[in-house]
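Input record, target 12 of the design panel.
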């Protein structure tokens, strides 16, 4: 989704158009979920984080044209929301954990868990930036604070590991 499409969808959503917001949901919920899962490490918490970010977007009342990089904005939103949830959850125990002892899997996201298990933290972060959020390798290098050459080498390793999982 381009910046213009994102802005248009949010503006239509602000006027009550649910289909416009549906486009945003379809485009970004999976990306939000994967990013949150990398941080919170639990499927149900990642789902909660992604849902909370979507609710905040639905209730967005400011001038959306002020958002210069919508992908970066949403990436920051999901990371901040995930970190806030971790802080909040450190002090509580959920009823489901007491009764059931485990979470309910999101079967359509099982491939993410396989990939996350195979990658190091640094490789996972690059995977999320480049594959999930469609960031160029140069932009990912800037975001990670490392050289472009190092990012290219790291991404080569990521591709090799993913190929080995799905031979």
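The sequence produced for target 12 reads:
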């Amino acid at each position: 989704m381009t910046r213009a499409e994102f802005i248009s969808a949010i503006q239509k959503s602000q006027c009550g158009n649910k289909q416009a917001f549906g486009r945003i949901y379809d485009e970004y919920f999976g990306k939000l979920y994967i990013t949150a899962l990398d941080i919170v490490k639990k499927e149900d918490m990642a789902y909660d984080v992604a849902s909370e970010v979507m609710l905040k977007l639905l209730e967005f009342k400011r001038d959306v044209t002020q958002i210069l990089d919508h992908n970066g904005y949403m990436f920051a939103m999901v990371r901040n929301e995930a970190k806030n949830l971790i802080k909040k959850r450190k002090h509580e125990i959920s009823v489901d954990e007491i009764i059931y002892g485990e979470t309910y899997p999101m079967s359509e996201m099982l491939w993410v868990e396989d990939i996350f298990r195979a990658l190091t933290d640094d490789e996972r972060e690059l995977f999320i930036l480049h594959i999930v959020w469609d960031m160029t390798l140069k932009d990912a290098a800037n975001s990670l604070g490392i050289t472009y050459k190092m990012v290219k080498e790291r991404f080569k390793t990521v591709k090799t590991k993913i190929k080995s999982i799905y031979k």
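The chain has a mean pLDDT of 85.
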